[in-house]
Amino acid sequence: MNYIVKKVLTLIITVLAITILTFVTFTVIPGDAAVAKAGVDASDEQLEALREEMGLNDSIWTRYTRWIGGALKGDFGYSYQYNNVTVSYLIKTRLPVTLMLAGLSLLLIIVFSIPLSLLAVKFRGGWIDHVISGANQVAMAIPSFFMGILITFVFGLVLKWFQPGNFPSPSENFWGSVGYLMFPALTVAIPKIAMTVKFLRSSIEKETKEDYVRTAKSKGNDEQRILYVHVLRAALIPVITFIALVLAEIMAGSIVAEQVFTLNGIGRLLITSISARDYPVVEAIVVYLTSVVVVINTLVDILYQLIDPRVRVS
User: Fold this and answer.
1) How far apart are CA 100 and CA 137, in angstroms?
2) Which 8-state DSSP code applies to residue 208?
3) What are phi and psi of 103, to 5 degrees?
C-alpha cells in the first residue's frame, strides 16, 4: 500500500511540474499572442488593449495561478485562433479520433507482436526467423511519415481501399471511420510491432532457459504447452513495462499520422495551434498528452508490482 501511495504522490508532483514547465515555456518563447490574434496590421493601441484583455501584462505567477485554477476545473480558457470557442470544446470534439487511432494502434501491436514473437522463437535459426528479423529491421528503420506516405500510396491510390483525405465522422459513420483509421493505425503500429517483437522474443528466449522449463520438460509436458502457457505468461511480465513506453510512442506517432491522413484529431490541432501561436490550446494539449503518458506509466508500475511477486518482495 505504501508503494501505491508513493506512486500516486509522485504522479501528482510530476503532473504539477509538467504544468509549470509547459506554461513557463510558452510564456518566454519569442512571439506575441496579441499580434497573432489581431494581425500585423493592428495599431499599437489596439495591441496594448488586447494584451490587457488577454491578461498578457500580468506577471507569470499571476497568469499561471489563474490558468491552473481554471485547468483544475476543466476550463483552459478560450482559443486565440477560434474566436469565442473554448479550448475544452476544441479538445473534446477532436479527442475521440485520437483515442480511436491510439486504441486501434495498440490492438494491432498486441495482435501481431505476440504470434510473430512465438514464431521467431519456435523456428529459431530457420528461414521464418530470418524473415521476421529482416522485416523488423526494415520496419524500425522507416520513419513514420514516410510509412504513412507509402500506405497512402499503396492502399489509397493504387488499391483504392480508402479515399485519402475523406475521413468520415465517427458520429455519422462509426464503422466507416474505423475502417479509415486502420490505415493510419498501421502507420503508427508497424514500427512498434517490430520493437515489441524484438523485445518479447528476447524475453521468451530468456525464460526458456529457466529451471522451471527444464522441470516441466522432465515431467513429460508438451513443448508447445510449455511455450504458450508457462513461458509466454512469464515473458509477458517485463513486456508490460515496455508496452507503457510504446503507448507514449503511439501518442507521438499519432501526431504524424493525423497530419499525413488529414485526421481532425488532437495531433493535427496541436500543429495548427503552434503555427497560429494559439498558446491556450497548445498548453492544454501538451499537458494532456504528457499527463496521459505519466498516468499510464504509473498504472503500469503499480500493476507490475501487483502481478510479479518478486517485485513485491524487493
Assistant:
1) 28
2) T
3) -65, -45
* Residue 262 φ/ψ region, left for φ over 0, alpha for ψ in the -120 to 50 degree band, beta for the rest: left
How many angstroms separate the CA atoms of 75 and 69, rounded?
Answer: 8
Contact 78, 162 (CB under 8 A): no
Per-residue pLDDT for 304 more than 80? no
The three grid cell numbers given for residue 172, joined into one nine-digit string: 455519422
Q: DSSP letter string over 97-165? A: HHHHHHHHHHHHHHHHHHHHHHHHHHTTTSHHHHHHHHHHHHHHHS-HHHHHHHHIIIIIIIS-SS-TT
102 close to 108: Cβ distance less than 8 angstroms: no
pLDDT in tens, 76-128: 888 877 877 888 899 888 888 888 998 899 899 889 988 888 888 888 878 88
Spatial contact of 19 and 302, defined as CB atoms under 8 Å apart? no
The rounded distance, in Å, linking the Cα atoms of 135 and 141 is: 10
How many Å apart are CA 155 and CA 115, to the nearest integer? 24
Reading phi first (left if > 0) and then psi (alpha if -120 to 50, else beta), residue 78 is in beta
Domains and CATH numbers, the chain: 98-311 (1.10.3720.10)
CB 118 within 8 Å of CB 227: yes
pLDDT for res 184: 92
